[in-house]
Prior knowledge:
Elements: H1 27-50
Amino acid sequence: MYKKYRKHPRVIEKKSQEDNPVMTIGIAAAIGVVVFAFLNGMVLGCTIKRK
């Protein structure tokens, strides 16, 4: 009569996000990185095109 397994297993929830060492950056910093990469590509493209 007694089942040794659970029909719906218990879900272990994470205590907090601070345990995982994931780097979080702000929206402004992320946009700055994308803009810098875009402008750097434009400059390199123009210099290669001139040669």
